[in-house]
Specification:
Elements (H helix, E strand, L loop, with lengths): L16 H6 L1 H5 L11 H17 L3 H4 L4 E6 L13 H9 L3 E6 L7 H8 L5 E5 L13 H8 L4 E10 L8 H17 L3 E6 L2 H10 L7 E3 L6 H9 L2 E5 L9 H8 L6 E3 L21 H12 L3 H15 L3
Parallel strand pairs: 1-2, 2-3, 3-4, 4-5, 5-6, 6-7, 7-8
Length: about 325
């Protein structure tokens, strides 16, 4: 125990909350023994000032620096005008928001090489290989071709694939065939699937079951369907990823569904450059804004931001085997 030495009375006329705040490291430091050497009356005088300082300190969540994993973005499609027309500047801006890992999603075969060249040298960026269900007039994938692309060391998933019946005006058999090809490729490559499903609940679930997609699992990304679909996907071994839509005023159904996702099956994403979260609606999105998705989810699920960020980070690492 340190020897307590008698201290001269403190003249509080020489101090203000501001002056104490500027030197709070001196007053509160155990190394300097500033507090434990003071007499009780002196501590009593200082107590209001100590309380003032404590109220100015960050909340516990902010004392812990959260890091984020954007599980679904399209870095190669982000307009660089807001980033000095520089991909390097874009990445700097993203990293300044504590985003330390992200997956850049492949949407067609024609753009894969260019996308891969952009991200290959960056340790914190991974990618997927696939053909988006909305892309009709593009080169069709084959199981062999997808597995060949999956041989690139940065490829951690197959997709984006799935079904989108939102604007369907014709027979969608071509989408279902393409979806099945991706599932077979994923099983052969032993990689998880990135699933896009919109207005196609029954067919999506049916094909996942028929093709035994539970063998590799994956994620239903930017999920906005109902809890029943999420629950069935989770039972097949899939994760559910929530985007900036969860912050939209009219997306109460998404918030209600997101409350129910088990913590060990939850991911976060931006789907940038689209779907900028509040307060950036209407602006070009980027992975640096995934924090706003995490904040809204933490709020509605009643947990700390740091806990949600850590959980979704670990989930993404587990899914993508990183």
């Amino acid at each position: 125990m340190p020897v307590l030495q008698e201290q001269k009375p403190v003249n509080m006329n020489n101090y203000s909350p501001q002056s104490i705040e500027k030197s709070d490291s001196k007053w509160l430091s155990l190394d300097n023994c500033a507090l434990h050497r003071l007499k009780a009356p002196t501590v009593g005088v200082l107590l209001p000032y100590i309380l003032y300082i404590s109220l100015r300190l960050p909340k516990p969540d902010r004392l812990l620096v959260s890091v984020y994993f954007d599980s679904h973005c399209h870095l190669d499609r982000i307009d660089l005008d807001e980033h000095n027309n520089s991909f390097a500047q874009l990445l700097e801006n993203i990293r300044s928001e504590q985003v330390t890992r992200m997956v850049c999603i492949g949407v067609n075969l024609e753009s894969f090489d260019e996308m891969y060249t952009k991200i290959e040298s960056h340790e914190d960026i991974y990618c997927s290989a696939g053909v988006h269900p909305d892309y009709e007039k593009v080169k069709e994938p084959t199981v062999e071709g997808l597995c060949q692309m999956a041989g690139h060391k940065k490829v951690v998933a197959i997709g984006e694939t799935g079904l989108d019946y939102m604007n369907s005006k014709s027979d969608m058999e071509w989408q279902r065939t393409r979806f099945s090809i991706h599932i077979e490729a994923a099983k052969q490559c032993k990689l998880p699937l990135i699933i896009h499903s919109r207005n196609a609940k029954q067919d999506t679930l049916a094909i996942l079951r028929e093709q035994s997609a539970e063998a590799v699992g994956g994620v239903l990304h930017c999920f906005t369907e109902d809890w029943d679909m999420a629950k069935q996907a989770i039972e097949l071994g899939f994760y559910i990823s929530i985007s900036g839509i969860v912050t939209f005023h009219q997306a109460e159904n998404v918030r209600e569904m997101a409350k129910m996702i088990p913590a060990d099956r939850l991911l976060i994403e931006t789907d940038s450059p689209w779907l900028s979260p509040v307060p950036f609606r209407g602006k070009t999105n980027h992975p640096g804004r995934v924090r706003y998705v995490a904040e809204k989810l933490a709020e509605i699920r009643g947990e700390s931001l740091n806990n949600l960020a850590q959980t979704t980070y670990e989930n993404a690492n587990r899914l993508f085997k990183l």
